[in-house]
Amino acid sequence: MASPLEYLPSEHICSRPLGLCFNKIGDLYIVDAYFGLLKVGPEGGLATPLATEAEVVRVNFTNDPDLDDEGNIYFTDSRIHYQRRIWGDQGQAALEKASICLLNCGPTGTEALKNLVLGGIGSVTVVDGSKVEASDLGNNFLLDEGCLGQPRAKSICSFLQELNDAVKAKFVDESPAHLIDTNPSFFSQFTVVIATQAATSPGATTLAASPSTAPGSPTRT
């Protein structure tokens, strides 16, 4: 897969679809970073624009569509003030060099990684010592029945790699709490460490946000 930088100059003309969903009669809804919400009927053809604003406010980075049982469509506007193309070459280049570590790959963390992977992040590493359970299938869109019993971190990385094979996706099948206590220096290699579903206990080591004192020190959140 080519670098997103190669397409960036003309992307706002050619579009950047970031999500798809179907309704019960086969209409395909598309959300695009530049063109907002569009629809293609069951017969195919060109997409018809439906909305470029919400409550009189223009949307700038539309993604993550969903439909309820009544046919109402919902989507996210990830960037309120600036369109994606204002991000520029430097911003995209920095994104491609960044390395992200996710502790515990629950639905919130997985959604964050999905958006970063689609955007062309340099690499992601998932640290999670859990196995995929039936309860995971209902709240994590990257997991299916074939993943049951498998390491959750491994399964998530496999699907992230399918979304963008140019992104390096690695996993560590180990409890984040154990890794923090036994090998805290492991995290110094990352640009950002994201901790989700973190339970604190007396005596536990915590990755806390603090001012960096050395170049390249990771941001922890």
UniProtKB/TrEMBL annotation:
Top-level lineage group: Eukaryota
Pfam families linked to this entry: ThiF
Domain THIF-type NAD/FAD binding fold: 85-195
GO MF term list: hydrolase activity; ubiquitin-like modifier activating enzyme activity
Identification of the protein by name: THIF-type NAD/FAD binding fold domain-containing protein
